[in-house]
């Protein structure tokens, strides 16, 4: 009678030597190949998911969390059974956070993206009215398509700590040029600069685009703790509806007091009447206190998908975002020194 185990099944018989010699035994190499195939497939799925999440993030859309980086890594570890492989996909992860600090008699909110070892910090100022209406690190009421807002993660990928500034709590209906050039706004910028210094003791740069160039220039004029300035698609013509004295926009501000390295970036085919590429030379000529000033004019891109002053046009470097970011990062890293008090 054949013996049965406790489940009423015949026990598995050991393979005979001739069966092993004939190749009927499962081989360790085939099992490892199968294991590697599973791991590669899982890695590909994770890569695709990361791309999808990055795309949503770039558009300013809300991205739902999975189960947290620790849980994802633990699951990956159980599957791969290798501590070395566990750390690989998670080591470079950068999670944006929502920050709100006190400044003056208001609160100042911003999105913070902090790489593991930042070499510099950048404070990004969107154009338009600047009121993003942030309610979280990935949810905003307005401005998701703005050039600097939609490319924020690209700056972080170059080891720059990023702060995307919202309008302060007492200007949630929007910031006009008068406020962007005000002492109060300069105080808000200084408060964010101080916060970033506390997170990483590296140079701080102000980067503004379009209407955001009023803010960036104001911060560089008023603050003693700013190390560099980048003006993008700068306002050099004024709209009569603004009712401001600055007839030539940013060019009418007290640029002669700016002593930090300054990059002026524009698109040669910018058709926005307020930010003509011809205005870049005027800006450069008025930066008399700094020897480190440079004008960059880009060309090319995708066909416009917005009006001339909109973000999906040469005004917003539509289709050449990577080239624009690379020019900015190259300038920052080439002149990335702490300003002497």
Structure in a nutshell:
By secondary structure, the protein is of the alpha/beta class. It has helices at residues 17-21, 28-58, 69-80, 83-90, 147-150, 152-157, 177-180, 183-199, 212-222, 279-286, 321-334; strands at 97-103, 106-113, 120-125, 160-165, 204-209, 228-232, 262-267, 293-298.
The unreliable regions are 1-8, 15-45, 54-91
CATH domain fold name of the largest domain = Rossmann fold
What is the terminal-to-terminal distance? Answer: 95 Å
Strand residue percentage: 5-15%
Number of domains: 2
Topology:
Layout: H1 17-21, H2 28-58, H3 69-80, H4 83-90, E1 97-103, E2 106-113, E3 120-125, H5 147-150, H6 152-157, E4 160-165, H7 177-180, H8 183-199, E5 204-209, H9 212-222, E6 228-232, E7 262-267, H10 279-286, E8 293-298, H11 321-334
Parallel strand pairs: 3-4, 3-5, 5-6, 6-7, 7-8
Antiparallel strand pairs: 1-2, 2-4
Outline the structure in words.
The protein is globular and about 40 Å long. A hairpin with a 2-residue loop joins strand 1 and strand 2. It has 2 domains: 64 residues; 238 residues, Rossmann fold (3-Layer(aba) Sandwich), CATH 3.40.50. It is built from 11 helices and 8 strands. The relative contact order is 0.10. An 8-stranded mixed sheet has the order 1-2-4-3-5-6-7-8, sandwiched between helices. By secondary structure, it is an alpha/beta fold.
């Amino acid at each position: 009678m054949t013996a049965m185990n406790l489940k009423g099944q015949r026990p598995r018989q050991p393979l005979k030597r001739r069966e092993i010699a004939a190749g009927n035994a499962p081989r360790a190499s085939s099992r490892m190949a199968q294991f590697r195939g599973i791991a590669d497939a899982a890695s590909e799925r994770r890569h695709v998911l990361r791309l999808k999440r990055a795309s949503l993030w770039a558009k300013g859309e809300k991205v739902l969390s999975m189960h947290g980086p620790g849980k994802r890594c633990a699951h990956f570890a159980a599957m791969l059974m290798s501590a070395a492989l566990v750390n690989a996909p998670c080591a470079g992860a950068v999670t944006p956070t929502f920050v709100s600090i006190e400044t003056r008699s208001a609160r100042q909110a911003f999105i913070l993206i902090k790489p593991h070892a930042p070499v510099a910090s950048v404070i990004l100022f969107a154009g338009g009215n600047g009121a993003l209406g942030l309610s979280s690190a990935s949810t905003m009421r307005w401005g998701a398509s703005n050039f600097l807002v939609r490319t924020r993660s690209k700056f972080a990928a170059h080891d720059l700590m990023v702060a995307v500034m919202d309008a302060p709590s007492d200007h949630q209906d929007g910031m006009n040029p008068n406020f962007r050039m005000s002492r109060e706004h300069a105080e808000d910028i200084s408060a964010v600069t101080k916060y970033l210094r506390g997170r990483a003791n590296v140079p701080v740069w102000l980067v503004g685009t379009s209407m955001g160039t009023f803010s960036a220039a104001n911060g560089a004029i008023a603050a003693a703790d700013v190390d560099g300035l980048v003006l993008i698609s700068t306002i050099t013509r004024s709209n009569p509806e603004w009712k401001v004295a600055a007839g030539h926009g940013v060019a009418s501000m007290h640029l002669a007091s700016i002593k930090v390295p300054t990059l002026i970036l524009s698109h040669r085919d910018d058709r926005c009447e307020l930010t003509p590429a011809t205005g870049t030379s005027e800006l450069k000529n008025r930066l008399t206190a700094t020897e480190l000033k440079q004008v960059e004019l880009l060309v090319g891109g995708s066909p416009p998908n917005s009006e001339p002053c909109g973000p999906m046009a040469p005004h917003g470097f539509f289709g050449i975002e990577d080239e624009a970011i690379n020019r900015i990062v190259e300038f920052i890293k080439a002149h990335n020194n702490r300003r002497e008090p």
